[in-house]
Amino acid sequence: MALASLRWGSTFLVVLIIFQCVCMMFYKQNTPSFGDVMTDTFQKMGCAKLRHKFSVIKPAKSIKFKSFAREVSDFLSCPYKSNETEQELNRIRLRFCCNATESFVLTKRNTAVNQSIPYETNSRRTYKMNADVHKLLPEDSPWSAGALGLCAVVGSSGILKNSSCGRQIDSADYVIRFNLALINDSDVGLKTNLITINPSQIRGYRNLEKKPGPLVKRVSVYGNSSLIIPAFAYVICTSPSLRVLRVLQPIRPQQPVLFFSPHYLRALDRFWKGRGLKERRLSTGFMLISAALEMCEHVHVYGFWPFGTDLQENPIPYHYYDQMRSGSVHRMPEEFLRLLQLHSQGALTLHLQPCDTH
Ligand SMILES: *[C@@H]1O[C@H](CO)[C@@H](O)[C@H](O)[C@H]1NC(C)=O
Ligand SMILES: *[C@@H]1O[C@H](CO)[C@@H](O)[C@H](O)[C@H]1NC(C)=O
Ligand SMILES: *[C@@H]1O[C@H](CO)[C@@H](O)[C@H](O)[C@H]1NC(C)=O
Ligand SMILES: *[C@@H]1O[C@H](CO)[C@@H](O)[C@H](O)[C@H]1NC(C)=O
Ligand SMILES: *[C@@H]1O[C@H](CO)[C@@H](O)[C@H](O)[C@H]1NC(C)=O
Ligand SMILES: *[C@@H]1O[C@H](CO)[C@@H](O)[C@H](O)[C@H]1NC(C)=O
């Protein structure tokens, strides 16, 4: 076996050399050197190996970070291979299970007055949709019109700091962000179409009904982008979320306040559990990437890197925009391995390196 591959290897080398000489006879300029051809060949083999390796999910516990970071770095330097078939398969699977296009957010169409809304994390608790709140829901899903084109989903990892990815992110057709994160033209871009609010972020706004100014100012930064809140994740999320809806709707009708549908999120949770992703609750980031895989033509993912150092092992902050330290309840490394798998399958494009700025 070894001998055979050795023989095959030397035949290959001889062919390469002949090929190289013939080329040199015809093209004196602009031809890659022998070294370049060899490097290229080895690189292709290395890339194929890594692509296969990352397409198989292993438990995150078994990862040795040092070699993992090097391999991820090498892999992301490989030419990206998009696979339209795989993208379409994911769209169909997700539409079949979860139907984000129709059911991602609560609307007048998919929710009736007096309907019992089960809580996402506890179906024994329900919220009865009252007529006043129902009146403030959007008529229909904002996404039922068709595919969203190229989407950028921008996470909050410190890896975005000094990334210069702003321009590339802003060139997407649809940009999704999280937790009212700061925007900034150089590293993360300014364009925003959908941004999440964590109900815990509302606590800082005292007396919202009488003094809506500070929150209005905070959300105006994102132009007319939709604000989306997990209002029915836990019981304690509901009242701050309803306050945001009641306060902002009359003041900024051009900026819709949306609520995640707990039906959608429960279906999505089952979908990923069925694929071996066992965690208490998916991260909001992973939820929105899943929705994007269904609703967008292409998905580019930035700022999802749940580790304390970058690919070159330099320490990075947990978030690109604040001093918070890691303390997450989510099993982010497990989710990250899924993203790497989707990248290796050509289903989405993961960005972890600084962007080209020419
Ligand atoms: C693209 O994905 C499909 C479905 O998973 C797979 O059958 C096919 O081999 C992939 N194509 C390439 C070029 O990898
Ligand atoms: C998605 O939901 C809408 C509205 O409930 C329904 O008309 C459509 O058939 C659903 N699509 C799938 C694939 O289930
Ligand atoms: C909702 O329930 C209230 C009282 O429980 C009732 O008065 C009202 O007619 C109901 N509305 C609808 C649309 O069913
Ligand atoms: C963007 O944010 C980075 C840190 O993430 C900072 O170094 C840079 O100065 C900011 N640029 C602008 C234009 O605010
Ligand atoms: C936001 O919506 C308002 C009102 O519909 C409109 O006048 C304005 O041009 C919009 N702004 C952007 C940036 O699209
Ligand atoms: C970003 O760049 C600044 C200045 O060039 C540097 O001081 C800082 O350490 C860098 N931060 C990261 C996380 O790379």
Automatic annotation (TrEMBL):
EC class: transferase
Gene: st8sia7.1
Primary location recorded for the protein, binned into one broad class: Golgi
EC number(s) reported in the record: 2.4.3.8
An individual GO BP term: N-glycan processing
PANTHER family xref list: ALPHA-2,8-SIALYLTRANSFERASE (PTHR11987), ALPHA-2,8-SIALYLTRANSFERASE 8F (PTHR11987:SF29)
GO molecular function: alpha-N-acetylneuraminate alpha-2,8-sialyltransferase activity
Glycoprotein is among the record's keywords: yes
Recorded GO CC terms: Golgi membrane
TM ranges: 6-27
Record protein name field: ST8 alpha-N-acetyl-neuraminide alpha-2,8-sialyltransferase 7.1
Keywords, ordered alphabetically: Disulfide bond, Glycoprotein, Glycosyltransferase, Golgi apparatus, Membrane, Signal-anchor, Transferase, Transmembrane, Transmembrane helix
Coiled coil residues, start to end: none
Subcellular location: Golgi apparatus membrane
Family: Belongs to the glycosyltransferase 29 family.
Pfam (any one): Glyco_transf_29
Membrane topology of the entry: Single-pass type II membrane protein
InterPro entries, alphabetized: Glyco_trans_29, Glycosyltr_29_Sialyltrsf, GT29-like_sf, Sialyl_trans
Disulphide bridges, residue numbers: C151-C296
Domain of life of the source: Eukaryota
Keyword set includes Translocase: no
